[in-house]
Amino acid sequence: MVVVMAPEATSADVEAVTGLVRSAGGQAFVSRGLSRTIVGLVGDVADFEALNLGSLAGVLQVIRVSAPYKLVSREHHPARSVIRVGGVPIGPDTLTVIAGPCAVESPEQTLRAALMARSAGASMLRGGAFKPRTSPYSYQGLGEEGLRILADVRAETGLPVVTEVIDPGHVELVASYADMLQIGARNMQNFALLQAVGSAGVPVLLKRGFSATIEEWLSAAEYIAQRGNLDIVLCERGIRTFETATRNTLDISAVPVVQRLSHLPVIVDPSHSGGRRDLVLPLTRAAIAVGADGLLIDVHPQPKTALCDGDQALSESEIRHIADVIASMPPLMGRMPARSPGGLRPIRAGV
Amino acid sequence: MVVVMAPEATSADVEAVTGLVRSAGGQAFVSRGLSRTIVGLVGDVADFEALNLGSLAGVLQVIRVSAPYKLVSREHHPARSVIRVGGVPIGPDTLTVIAGPCAVESPEQTLRAALMARSAGASMLRGGAFKPRTSPYSYQGLGEEGLRILADVRAETGLPVVTEVIDPGHVELVASYADMLQIGARNMQNFALLQAVGSAGVPVLLKRGFSATIEEWLSAAEYIAQRGNLDIVLCERGIRTFETATRNTLDISAVPVVQRLSHLPVIVDPSHSGGRRDLVLPLTRAAIAVGADGLLIDVHPQPKTALCDGDQALSESEIRHIADVIASMPPLMGRMPARSPGGLRPIRAGV
Amino acid sequence: MVVVMAPEATSADVEAVTGLVRSAGGQAFVSRGLSRTIVGLVGDVADFEALNLGSLAGVLQVIRVSAPYKLVSREHHPARSVIRVGGVPIGPDTLTVIAGPCAVESPEQTLRAALMARSAGASMLRGGAFKPRTSPYSYQGLGEEGLRILADVRAETGLPVVTEVIDPGHVELVASYADMLQIGARNMQNFALLQAVGSAGVPVLLKRGFSATIEEWLSAAEYIAQRGNLDIVLCERGIRTFETATRNTLDISAVPVVQRLSHLPVIVDPSHSGGRRDLVLPLTRAAIAVGADGLLIDVHPQPKTALCDGDQALSESEIRHIADVIASMPPLMGRMPARSPGGLRPIRAGV
Amino acid sequence: MVVVMAPEATSADVEAVTGLVRSAGGQAFVSRGLSRTIVGLVGDVADFEALNLGSLAGVLQVIRVSAPYKLVSREHHPARSVIRVGGVPIGPDTLTVIAGPCAVESPEQTLRAALMARSAGASMLRGGAFKPRTSPYSYQGLGEEGLRILADVRAETGLPVVTEVIDPGHVELVASYADMLQIGARNMQNFALLQAVGSAGVPVLLKRGFSATIEEWLSAAEYIAQRGNLDIVLCERGIRTFETATRNTLDISAVPVVQRLSHLPVIVDPSHSGGRRDLVLPLTRAAIAVGADGLLIDVHPQPKTALCDGDQALSESEIRHIADVIASMPPLMGRMPARSPGGLRPIRAGV
């Protein structure tokens, strides 16, 4: 930590700072400048934060120079992690595609979407049973019925399932059906929920809040890690900016930035970022090229009748271009497309 | 709703839109322009949204022209509401000050803060027992022990209590102690929590998410209202922008904008907006002058040792300037400072 | 300046930093922490910036702790400045209202707007002759003809004139007609223009860029000051955020923040901030209450036919409420409404 | 255009709108809804804008549904344009790399940087002679001396030159040395400058303002086009958001969005977007993959001593990875790396 003294600070003000730091077991190094005096603190940041140094007379600014997260930081864990979900790896050597419908609407729609996903190269299925919607008048999901459908489709297709949980009280229920729990963007700082999934012993997909800094995102991951769960995959899905041409602004730079700061895998959601079907393909290519560890893509057998986010879901014909990209680009980046362990199970007739 | 057709849209494309709208029981009026054709829809917006018109061929844009909230809108409820919390009114004729410590730390600290608050003109006490913190290593609050302290201090001072709830599973517990439940900025779109407080039958203080549009904020209030609870007070507490000189940017314009759109009262938090003690007084004056229905202010008997947000809490000497402003400005705005019904109860000796 | 070393930095890396700083005539104080080493630099920041310390091996971050502006800073000039424009003071003891039409359209419209402005308490006239418009198809202003109209209206009404200049090549021309040169928001970092007005010897009204930080705004003022012109008034006019309910978000906190950092006066534009007529009155009250040194308000005799920003210009009936506020509120803030020296000159008949 | 009437609007209010529109030669189609009446306007938008419909009684909102730019729009010019600069094409079939030092410091530094650029696959040289800097105390460039150096280096290397112009009065001078004029991000809405380069008859590189919407950016291009100059290349260089981990947030989605709206080529600046050397390579890959028509990259023979933006300039060893990417990726996107016509001229000995 660095304490910057105000120009008008007195020697006594500086001594008050150094005295307090030393009384808390830390060391304080004073650099007296022409217009500013700076005090560098050595010791435990948490101890120093409790001192409220910013409230002392003559203190202009307190600058924290170390990150507020530890377990998810690469500082003490330099090797990048591989997280396995139902046997599917997500990490530095693979490109793992997770795809499926934004909302689970029926067994047929979900199975068809899963088969589309699989044929496009996806090795995991996503689908929403509990839907957090901005308006209470929008479709809210099928709840547990949706979870059952997802489990059935997993049995059919061999694709491990990730689905969102929005209430700490539902974590156990959702974990009993799903292979991975998704924390949505709006819940990224729902700390009760983070702690609940941290204790659930199931891998977690943590989407970035649409207005969260990277530091806040990694701090949210730290909440999960602190409860003993380090099986966390981060998902960049666009941030809120002044630009209105796209639903959100995909922060493509966040991928290499996060990979440098944290050992956790980071994937990209090209569907929610732009909110436009025509952007999914170029953003998918960009995500792979920037070095993402995976993708989360909306597909729907009939986007025109989708109950949620139909504007961005890909249809059967559109998914083929994605399939080509997923098959051809990862090797250029030194990655292999991840494969689902279920392989090619026989599929229910008539679908 | 308005559907804007792309320049290249064919007549068949336009007819597909109008046909779909009519099949859903709506009416469609077509305006053919030189470079654009526009279709105006008349009927129930929810029905139209289910049509996914944006997915149809030739559709450039779908513009919703009515608000996504109804119960909290002023459209069908033109008179501005007065919400009563433990006998204290919040509404168009009063200026209601809620003050207290960011976090409840001990009985003594809470009582002293409450007395400071009361002497400054506050008629309600706020204090956090469950604290949502960005870092898991920051102080997380006393939990139920904090709720008990708040109830005790209410008994001593006569000030109704508002405190934050962060977990749907805690709503009943918190409601058994508090007069009003606070939904914090980070939980503004925690829909499970919104629904839980909507069913709790206790007034709710709904802080604006730091990246929420006014429309999203009112939609969050609609979630609460939809469960039968219209005792909602909105609180503007600053939004996230690119400016770093202040912790957040107080969106002072939001107050008159919200008052025009919704009948719910709206108050301002000058402490969290700026995150700086020196800004609390000028922002308090600005909030009263712009027409806010109340204020939410951090006070602490010893800000230098506060366990949470000490940089912005006002001390005893600073609160006096606020007290002067609260006593003198509201009448100029046609308001009376709200009074707590508890009046001047005898206070525990020695405090 | 503070140099934060990366966790993996070696002793040699630290020595490279300290050696370079010392070779540039500075001093370097090293604080070795558990996970980070910090080097505090003492000396001339400009010298250190030329060293590109951020490029050295093992350097994580370089933090500048002093402001990049000097002449406009309050650090070496603690007393707040009073700027005089045609005899009208703008500074800490007055509230100076500048009003007029967004665009000069005709002699009649300008004179009528000026009389409206004066009757509302304005002591200066603003009006645009050169208009910077987002679209090349929008009204671009009357040019020099507009300047002549402004000068004529000044002669009629006694109100000093402020008008915008958008081209360094026009500065001399505009300065020959106007009492004060306005730099618009879009030109706040048009450094050629800033330098030109800095050399013009005429007071400058510097509007904040809609995406400029306070530090960038003061740095822009420094460009003007550096050419010898310290007669600068700053104008907060709203910043660009994600909120779309208002045209911009008035950053009301910027007023006290700037007044603490700089000795220059700062006024508020409640018209362009919100871009809505119904917000002008509440934002005017908020600006006075927060401590602004003045106001810049759009008025127009017939807003419905205005060629520029008619949505926000006040008409004759609306200006009365503003007049009341301008007459009654400043004394409560310890200020007097500023008066134009011209006083009540006889006005051309028939207007 | 669409006019949305307020719920309380009367029939007379609606007739006032339709009457005014018809009197201006337009047509008005009324859709009466349950809670809103909508009026669709057919005719010339510019005529309608002059009517200030937003000021009429009962009007809630006026929505423009067509773009404010025409000449640069793809609507009437569906084929994507190829712009040629000194014989080098920029357009849909090529990937054109422009590279060079942020600031021209000396003949040697510029030549070395140009050779680095060429060996990395660049076919054009960029370098700044007039530098717009946030602080007046930062390096401001060599001016005309820098232009001469650039022209000399062009003669040596065969690389056409793009350099920034910041003052309308300098356009002729800069155009006499350079092959392409750059408008920097801070000057994107410097309309006097846009008009000046529009009249200069030289290709223009128009960087996006860091807070400009895509619509504003294309409107700025329209200013240039309106003066008869359609040789415009757009450059995405990051936008200002709340995220501080990177200097700006590269809006990678802007590339496909712009390519859909406008026929002009669009390139990406991976150096200024992130402001970090370690991000240049991943962002370069992402830009090529998303479909950018070119790249603008900072290189410097000795980044550690660079007078401007040394933190992001690539050194000789780092440029090799870029060279590999530039050689291998474009064919996968159906593009060829653009070649400079100068080819391999003999280079001055000893460099």
From TrEMBL, chains A, B, C, D:
Residues 1-66 form the DAHP synthase ferredoxin-like domain. It comes from the Bacteria. Signal peptide: none annotated. It holds the Pfam family DAHP_snth_FXD. Keywords: Transferase. One of its GO terms (biological process) is aromatic amino acid family biosynthetic process. InterPro entries: Aldolase_TIM, Class-I_DAHP_synthase, DAHP1/KDSA, DAHP_snth_FXD, DAHP_syn_2. This is 3-deoxy-D-arabinoheptulosonate-7-phosphate synthase. The lineage of its organism: Bacteria, Bacillati, Actinomycetota, Actinomycetes, Micromonosporales.
